[in-house]
Design goal:
It is a single chain. This protein has about 425 residues and is of the alpha/beta class. It has 14 helices and 16 strands. Helix 14 links the parallel strand 12 and strand 13. Helix 2 crosses helix 7 and helix 10 crosses helix 11. The mean pLDDT is about 95.
Length: about 425
């Protein structure tokens, strides 16, 4: 078994970050287009590696939700390459002047965007993240050390091999994108303490991973990706439209963090709407966990079970949907404050005053009015691929596109000024 020397990886990443920070936009675009081309050209090898990962995952008893996250298909490979090209076409934030002014003493003061340096990204079960993160890191002049889950190790190896081929093709160091090529969990803790070289840790995974990084990292951590998300159906809502939105938010891809977990229905429309919702979603494989009032309305409906303690604090990541009847906007907001994770929250309404209150009073990275929570995504927001969806408030919030992977430096220009 190959020994992983994280100190050497960190040192190489830091050296690569200096090279990347000095690249022109044109050079970074060339690198990204080379990555996209290599991903397409190497699709057969990646799919073969992924098929082994999926087979092993199924044999290990991984849930269907995790298997869906793990799976690559020719269509998903095509989307990966397209996402890299989209990132290449985005404006380059590095070097952008955020503000500038001349002080009374004649000094010109400005703030300019610069790369963060070296990113450490830890994620689970999603090999597409390998390419997304590499693309965003290259776009913003950052080096990155990746640590994917053990269940996707072969897929990640194949993808990083292609990325290295692309980097070599354009004359850039392969250390710009490195993979911790081992399932040894001790290496995660070592990465979290590699503060000499790594400037930011970004975990993409469940609560256990987030907590580990928060508690043990000596490097700043951006938390996110855990979404206990709600859709509140208000009395004035277009109920037929509400059915379409909730179906999309739950069924389109239930295993992702922006899928809806709980639907809150105002009591005035609950008797009409809840049976319609169950009739719409049950044939699509959705099961329901209902509070007492919703259970009373849905008594005898197949696939509807009473919610147990803790069910409204669960990110289902599967075709399970919580149902709760609320008296109105105040109770809906109170429930979201008690059980939400600050990820994606939505209201379906035709009442402008209620929509305004919901937007103002719900604390989340993204708040939606008459739209699916599935739109909380870097690509959907026009940011290109995302490195994560941050649910904290510093240094980034929501889908983290290129600007979120930069910081800034102050530039002071004078004419031989001295301070008096």
């Amino acid at each position: 078994m190959t020994t992983i020397d994280l100190q050497a990886m960190g040192k190489a990443a830091k050296a690569a970050s200096y090279r990347l920070a000095a690249l022109s936009s044109q050079e970074k675009t060339a690198a990204l287009l080379a990555v996209a081309a290599q991903v397409e050209a190497g699709a057969e090898a990646v799919l073969a590696a992924n098929a082994q990962d999926v087979a092993d995952g199924r044999a290990r008893g991984l849930s269907e939700a995790l298997l869906d996250r793990l799976l690559l298909t020719p269509q998903r490979i095509d989307k990966l390459a397209a996402a890299v090209r989209h990132v290449a076409a985005l404006p380059d934030p590095v070097g952008m002047e955020i503000e500038g002014r001349v002080l009374p003493n004649g000094l010109r003061l400005s703030r300019r965007r610069v790369p963060l340096g070296v990113l450490g990204v830890i994620y689970e079960a999603r090999p597409n993240v390998t390419v997304d993160i590499a693309a965003l890191a290259l776009k913003t002049g950052n080096a990155v050390i990746l640590r994917g889950g053990s269940e996707t190790l072969r897929s990640n190896r194949a993808l990083v091999h292609l990325i290295h081929r692309a980097l070599e093709e354009v004359g850039l160091p392969s250390a710009a994108v490195q993979l911790i090529d081992s399932p040894d969990r001790a290496l995660v803790r070592q990465l979290l303490r590699l503060d000499t070289y790594v400037d930011m840790i970004i975990p993409r995974g469940g609560a256990k991973l987030q907590r580990l990084c928060q508690e043990e990292s000596t490097i700043p951590v951006i938390l996110g990706g855990i979404g206990i998300n709600h859709i509140y159906v208000e009395t004035s809502a277009d109920l037929e439209g509400a059915l379409r939105v909730i179906e999309n938010a739950k069924v389109q891809r239930p295993s992702v963090c922006n899928a809806v977990d709980t639907v809150l229905v105002e009591s005035a429309v609950a008797k009409t709407f809840l049976p319609q919702l169950v009739a719409r979603l049950r044939p699509l494989g959705v099961e329901f966990r209902a509070d007492a009032e919703a259970m009373a309305i849905l008594a005898g409906e197949a696939g509807v079970l009473p919610a147990e303690a803790g069910d409204f604090d669960r990110e289902w990541l599967s075709l399970v949907l919580g149902l709760k009847v609320v008296s109105g906007l105040d109770e809906a907001i109170a429930h979201i404050r008690a059980h939400g994770t600050g990820h994606s929250e939505a209201i379906l309404t035709n009442d402008l005053a209620h929509a305004t209150r919901f937007v103002d009073e719900v604390d989340a990275a993204a708040v939606f009015v008459n739209a699916s929570t599935r739109f909380n995504d870097g690509g959907q927001f026009g940011l290109g691929a995302e490195v994560a969806i941050s649910t904290q408030k510093l240094h980034a919030r929501g889908p983290m596109g290129p600007e979120a992977l930069t910081t800034y430096k102050w530039i002071v220009q004078g004419k031989m000024h001295v301070r008096v």
